[in-house]
Amino acid sequence: MKIHQLSAADAIASLNSNPQGLSSIEAQRRLGEFGLHRVEEVAGESILLRFLKEFTHFFALILWLAAGLAFLAEWSDRGQGMAKVGYAILAVIVVSGLFSFWQEFRVERTLAALRELLPQQVDVLREGKAVRLLADRLVPGDIVLLEQGNNIPADCRLVEAFGVRVNDATVTGESLSKIRTAGPSAKEEIIHAENILLAGTSMVSGEAQAVVFATGMHSEFGKIAHLTQTGREAVSPLREQITYLSRLIGILAVAIGLIFFAISRILGVPFWEDFIFAIGIIVAMVPEGLLPTLTLALVLATQRMAKRHVLIRYLPSVETLGSTTVICTDKTGTLTQNRMTVRRVWLGAGLECPPNPGAGQEAAALYRPFFMAASLCHDLREGDQQGRKVLLGDPMEIALVETAERFLSALPACKKLDEIPFDVSRMRLSTVHATPEGPMLFCKGAPEMVIPLCDRILDDGEMRSFDSDLRAKVRQAQEAMAGQGLRVIAMSYRPLDDHWQRAEVEENLIFAGLAGLEDPPRPEVPEALRKCREAGIAVIMVTGDHPFTAKAIAREIGLIRSDDPLVITGDELRALTDTQLRLALDTPEIIFARVGADQKRRIVEALKRKGHVVAATGDGVNDAPALKSAHIGIAMGITGTDVAKEAADMVLLDDNFASIVNAVEEGRAVFSNIRKFLTYILTHNVPELIPYLVFSLFSVPLALTPIQILSIDMGTDSLTALGLGVEKPDPRMMQRPPRSQHQRLFDWPLALRAYLFLGAIEGAI
Ligand code: ADP
Ligand code: MG
After folding, report:
1. Of the bound ligands, which one is closest to the alpha carbon of residue 429?
2. Pocket-testing residue among 489, 509, 540, ligand 1, by greatest number of atoms within 8 A of Cβ
3. DSSP states of 547-603 as a string?
4. If you ran DSSP here, which 8-state letter would residue 288 be given?
5. Residues 135-194: pLDDT tens digits?
């Protein structure tokens, strides 16, 4: 039978593995036998072809033509020194071709090094412990641990699945997500089986364990990779702009050459002399070093950004970054440290209990379900750090588990029977466990989402009806905690009978209490926010947390300073029309709280329609549409899911808001640097032309021969321009408002300044 037709246990056995995962010795042995798990890249263009390309682009073609004309002239009228000019042009072609080739090579090497900064990692069970591996170390038989937002690293068969849905558009082209389960499948074809996850697809929801059965080029994705990799990469907008620019300058050069040729002929300069000179002018005005220098300037900027914990995935974003006018940012982990500690515990209908042991032993006995929920209802994994047992996962859940452990000394192991995963629209997580008292459901999450599911409340060890007075009391307690900047989580539970159904467990719950967690702001954030204010960049917090919590944190970090900032909740946002939303966005201090899935995208769209250049952060699967829609989508490197990272233009390696501001600064610097060297390259054409103008108009002896012009050009066009391209950001750069989105790299003011002002001065000197 095929692997998808077997039971989960048999599927694992058929790969000579076991539910605890492989041993590290066996994994090592298999790695030797099956090799690294890599989809081998189809060989790109050969080096030779790329080398030849440097001699056949637009500028090179103009030069070839010029050289050809020079030799033609020599052939038709010997002894005028035309051949010398021809050879000089050939030398220019060779030198600038080699220079470009070298630059391109550096670009590629830098980009490859940057890619290494964000390796794909997977969590794998080895000898019963979760370990994090580089994805290329996977071997057949490995048990991988997957959760919402993960890319599927290799072809694998589910052995345990809670609420799993996958998006397999990369393989099948269908964009709707599909349900996946762990049971055996009756299907004939493996790709249609409901229990198979294919490499290159992604998990949009749920929690799962799966056993790897094909790695590397044996996987389905490996097989189709040959097809997909051969597709050509689309030309990026910046490249387009540069190509357009170079055409423009090339045509300008030819036109000026022709005009000069005509003027001189009219003034009676001998034909051949004039001809040589026209060619010289054209060659001198063609900025050979421009294209590679531009790309290199961008790439070096991305390298500098990487040192400041920002990874650029899409090169043209570097330029867009500089014109950012508004940043929509997450709160948890970006503005705050995501280091959670339980500060307050509020049990049942009003027992406030210090979150440290000793004082709370009595409470622990009366409110045992509260602490059981805190310790069991989570997605954490047990990992191993230098022989010590550690918990891996959401810091908030770790804090809750640790607090519960302090109160409940002996908690028997309770196997997780089922789970309804957390997602942003539900804002809660439910798990079912086999406890000594029988199966039990635990549900924790945002109080607004959990309390409506509760009809009873645990009060002093007894069950009471959860009437409106008690509800009001609980809400007051929640709001008081949130007002202190704490994240408030409600805990609830429900004993189940043996015939429980997954679809019906999240109802008639018993409310057990609230936990208030503190998450301190990042220390760099207030300074970064001050920089944004100076630089004319608005910052809007968009969070899933309670409005009071959001407001308290925003005030603490200096994001809001007025007395009555506008706080819009997800529910209020749903009630606003697009026009109302756009008008609301005119408020200087605005916060979005309790926003649900896909509302971030709406905010981004509204800002875009107001003419803003929007940068937006995100980490979850639900954030992907907003990241794609924003001018600059920013994913979190640490807490971000694979799906979010893939949708983003840039990744914050340290999840830190301050790094975004640094990146904007670099973006502004790059733009101004590119304009600096454009100005420089264009400027020096004028002093090269003036001697000839003077020579032909006033019959003053010629100061520069074409060959001299060419050699000056060779020495000044490339390396020196590069120097300007890599200048460090000027600190005053962040004290100006963002440049207009419509300002292009090359525009009339720049051309006039270079040719008429700077060029004239240089020429006169
Ligand atoms: P943020 O914008 O602060 O990152 P999220 O969108 O991640 O907020 O979460 C929104 C709300 O969902 C939180 O305020 C919290 O009440 C709830 N929540 C977050 N994580 C969990 C979890 N692991 N289990 C249960 N509830 C959670
Ligand atoms: Mg979050």
Report:
1. 1
2. 489
3. HHHHHHHHHHHTS--SSS-EEEEHHHHHHS-HHHHHHHTTSSSEEEES--TTHHHHH
4. T
5. 889 999 999 999 999 999 889 999 999 989 998 877 777 778 889 999 998 888 887 889
